[in-house]
Fold this sequence. Notes:
Blueprint: E1 2-5, H1 9-18, E2 24-27, H2 33-37, E3 42-43, H3 46-50, E4 54-57, H4 64-71, E5 80-83, H5 89-98, E6 104-110, E7 125-130, H6 135-147, E8 151-154, H7 157-181, H8 191-203, H9 208-216, H10 221-239
Parallel strand pairs: 1-2, 1-4, 2-3, 4-5, 5-6, 7-8
Antiparallel strand pairs: 6-7
Amino acid sequence: xxxxxxxxxxxxxxxRYLAEDCRVLVYSNSQPxxxxxAVGASKATxxxxxxxxxVILCVPISAMRPALEKIAPMLAHDAVVIDVCSVxxxxxxxMQQRLPDHVGILGTxxxxxxxxxxxxxxxxxxxxxxxxTPEVIYRKIRLYLRGxxxxxxxxxxxxxxxxxxxxxxxxxxxxxxxxxxGADRLRIDTEGYRRLTYTLEVVEHDTWQLFQDMHRFNPFAxxxxxxxxxxxxxxxxxxx
Length: 240
């Protein structure tokens, strides 16, 4: 059995796929039981969710620390606590600081979302950063994910955040900037412009909180963002 804390768009996607293979209990203080049951899971109390052998935190990065402090006394012995944050260094440090020594800690970053994985997980990427999960259990999790068709990438938290500052944070920054600029589809366009406006589609369904968190809590994001803007400035200067 698996417990999930949080039932936003990604929590619902996680519950739906996991419910195909096992019983899933979900704690949510905002979503009704009917919405949770619609994806094949069951609504439960926080205590019931924390009693499961696997507990997945599907909460915003900015809500991680209070959530960890709340669940720490409720976790079962030898439980594995899994996060799905889009940054890894700070959330995993918080988990180590706030969770009891008798639980395993596994950091994950599913490189997909409710839109890109709406119909299938096949060939979608997921990053794993194991911290204290026993090797035998970690291998089982890794094997299960690969069996679901996922491309499993193992990484350190620092290397993950360094690369994701470019591949995710910068991409979303460009997409948000295009939206702020007012970029839209045009009848007289080019293939290059159509590809550029695809970035708008990448970010338009994500919340501002997710965007803010991926920049605020990634230790490399600000420098990458500033380097990119400086490069734009240099290119612009060459045109003057």
